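User: Assemble these into one structure.

Assistant: Restating your components, then the assembled model:
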Amino acid sequence: MIKSMFQISPGFEDIMPAEYLELIENGPFEKRVGVSDLGAFKELLEEHPLCAGCGLALSLRLILASLPNPEDTIIIGSTGCSALAFPQVALHNIHSLFGNQNAVASGVKRALNLRFPDKIKDVVVIAGDGATADIGLDMVLHSWFRQEKITTIMLDNEAYANTGGQESGMSPKGTVLNMAPKGKTFSKVSIPELAREAGCAYVASVNPAQPKKLEKAIVRGILAARELGPTYIQVFSPCPTNYKFKPNETISKVRLREKEGTYETKEFLSTEARELFARLEEEKK
Amino acid sequence: MYVKVRVDEKKCVGCKLCIFACPDPNVLTYTENKKVSADENRCKGCGLCVSSCPKGALIIS
């Protein structure tokens, strides 16, 4: 996609929404912007209906700002809180059936390879923990086994948040939620380790309290997916509505969990990915 | 109750930590004189920027 494609036809400037005009004048397309430039350009996300203090919205905002090639990125979403924000995202995005996001992304990636063999097209899956770890685990795991070149990003809010607060596979053991009164009986599913064993080239677990680290993980995940194979990034994004804490405590909760050691940031690189990043670093110099 | 964020321009040092903490896009913007300005109409009043500001330049009211 090039900038001339979404330019407004002459004579229609006064009826287009102000947000669209801002996106054309000051958007991130065809510029090299990152998380550190936030606040100086028009973001790809618009006013969304997610709750005040939502960790997921913060993570999504940072993820969209750190995409290395936003004009040629296709986002595949799935049902969940994140799906409520996707209609406000100024990128090509597909809403898939609950849990089908990686199967849809595999098809999209293959079709784009046939249609545009000489262009770089990034296919990025952004889904919640329910779609990735519970309902869609089958599709996610098999896309990794097949070595599809897609990036899977999980926004982990540790619950089914927009249906009233049911426990998910990613909730910690003993969690009591609105619709899980007895407390969860088994511990948190460890998807990063699962991804590593399933053949992902790059696996990371990050959180929005460290935006630079998050940006680095997203960029690395997408670059590794272009050349090597599937990549997986898990972003911790706590939910103040269902976990019953004040909306201004989201970031301190993230820091507390990391200090306690119950949600650590980690990174795993395969040997091929290590070589690729070393090569890219040298090319930059 | 309607709450929104306000920036005290005298206290703001332009470190941008509040911009990285806000879950809503385009609320806090970085102006040309190296300060942060807030678009009050977009703010949901969660207070994450207030708890992240090291200088106490932001208030929710």
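The mean pLDDT of chain B is 91.
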